[in-house]
Amino acid sequence: MLDDSPTVGLRLVESLAAVDADQWDACALAPGAAGSPFLSHRFLKALEDSKSVGRRTGWQPQYLLAEAGDGTLLGAAPLYVKGHSQGEYVFDHGWAQAFERAGGRYYPKLQVAVPFTPVPGPRLFTRPGPYASGVCDAMIDMMAKIAGDNGISSVHATFCSQADWKRFGERGWLLRLGRQYHWHNDGYGCFDDFLAALASRKRKAIRKERDSVRREGLTLRALSGADIKPEHWDAFFAFYMDTGGRKWGSPYLTRSFFDILGDTMADKVVLVMAEADGRPVGGALNLKGDDTLYGRYWGCLESHAFLHFEACYYQAIDYAIAHGLKHVEAGAQGDHKIQRGYLPVPTFSAHWIVDPGFRRAVDDFLKRERPAVEQEIEELMQYSPFRKGDE
């Protein structure tokens, strides 16, 4: 029972088809979510409808809903039952191996996340109002209860917002830090304004990389909305499969996912396509929120020097400046992003471990890992390409 609140019912559903889209988005896209397209009913349902999540991929939806007595959705969380640790970008393989060597059973586990999407954002969706705080706490406690009652080893809320991270910690969850690399728009009027903020040597290096792409005769276009045609998705899917097959062995997203994305969310898509003599040779898929451009997937079928940096990083900066977006988030990993203006920032995850002994071991590990990550971010900032003093 939530203090000073109406009765709230908590239940699980296996598909967003059972949830009204407007009610879901009223919670998931509430102020503070920055209009993240990945949290929307359209995006998560596209993953379901395309069979990119489900039994085949080992991401079984079990969305947690918090409802008022009249059926109004007051809160929700994107919850999945998982039999592996793939597609998460917050690595717990060592935890799984240690627990199973000790005789435990790590899988299945519960994941509170957007599948295959290392984009920070809320993981506790609540409708704005006086009862939002209590709804969050009830959902957190219910996740832990579900794990404990069903022989599930753990629950992992990954890439959550810092506000959610703190709330999970207040309910006894273990807290973990990671890092990503984000670009910030400091009021630039054009790409040259951004370059002018860099140290001379870094500025020259970026210009050299961009010139190299042009000298190879490549042209790049950022497509959105109705400008994206089926042939563009055909080409991009080939890029995605090539890169995904080399990196992951078995890419998750099906061809139909991109068709559904184009049909239902084309206004949120920024598809960068690179062409040589009219032939598509590479591309990068971005989605845009209210103030942020999110880089997600990239691939190419031909090798061209610096094409990856141009398609994924520089084109994203160009687009953000032209459209007044404040940030570009270029995905997980990659220290090389620093020299291209993407600086390290902390990311947050929270973990509920059921077994007391295993919990103590993970807690000890995280207490040592967090200050190491903080120090690493501080040290990486020393490699910032931006001008210092009179440079």
Provide tags for this entry.
391 residues, 11 helices, 15 strands
* Radius of gyration over C-alpha positions, nearest whole angstrom: 22 Å
The average pLDDT score comes to 95
User: Major sheet: size, sense and barrel closure?
Assistant: 11 strands, mixed
CATH topology of the largest domain: Aminopeptidase
**CATH class value of the largest domain:** Alpha Beta
Provide structural commentary:
- By secondary structure, the chain is an alpha+beta fold.
- It folds into 2 domains: 8-180 and 345-381, Gcn5-related N-acetyltransferase (GNAT) (Aminopeptidase), CATH 3.40.630.30; 186-325, Gcn5-related N-acetyltransferase (GNAT) (Aminopeptidase, 3-Layer(aba) Sandwich).
- Helices cover 37% and strands 25% of the residues.
- It has 11 helices and 15 strands.
- It has helices spanning 21-28, 41-49, 93-101, 132-149, 162-170, 191-196, 200-215, 230-247, 255-265, 307-322, 356-380; strands spanning 8-13, 59-61, 63-68, 73-77, 79-82, 109-112, 125-126, 154-160, 174-184, 218-223, 269-276, 279-288, 292-300, 327-332, 343-353.
- An 11-stranded mixed β-sheet has the order 2-5-6-8-15-9-14-13-12-11-10, with helices on both faces. Strands 1-3-4-7 form a 4-stranded antiparallel β-sheet, with helices on both faces.
- A hairpin with a 2-residue loop joins strand 11 (269-276) and strand 12.
- Helix 2 runs antiparallel to helix 9 (255-265) and helix 8 packs across helix 9 (255-265).
- It is globular.
- The N and C termini lie far apart (60 Å).
- 40% of the residues are buried.
- The mean pLDDT is 95.
